[in-house]
Design a protein that fits this description.
plasmid; elongated
Length: 164
Amino acid sequence: MDRPDLLTRISYAISALAIVVMMMTVVLDVVLRLVFDVPVRGAYDVVGFSLLVMVFFGIVPVVESRSEIVIDIVDAVLPPHAIALLSRVAAFGTICFFLFLGWSMFGPAWEAYAYGDRSLELGVPLWVLWAVAYVGLAGNICVALRMLVRRGSEAAHRMAEVRS
């Protein structure tokens, strides 16, 4: 397998850091509550923020490595060019999903900005979180576009091999 590109490695590192922060916050909160009866102030917000970062940045390596859940029902009966077409359709569907997700996030993100919504415990402006989500989503769209082009060229290469 090829080494992941820079965008994928950065996204992977960001999502890994987010899950470590989330786990350490939960562990610290539980230990401090049990031992000293002192909760970690803002633990709820930190865990929520970390989850958002982990999800939006963690999908990039999955799409890039083609590690999505795949059910090969028709692969055994279809010719190679039809499988290549299905692969491109799936890549296009991924792009459409991410674009739809971005479009459906716009309303709540704009309202959070317009009304000055803030997180419950730490008072962080929620539009900042929406901006982080959009940055992760942009990375997902870039990788999905690259996969669409790559799958198209792989399919053309396989077609040439089959014909020769």
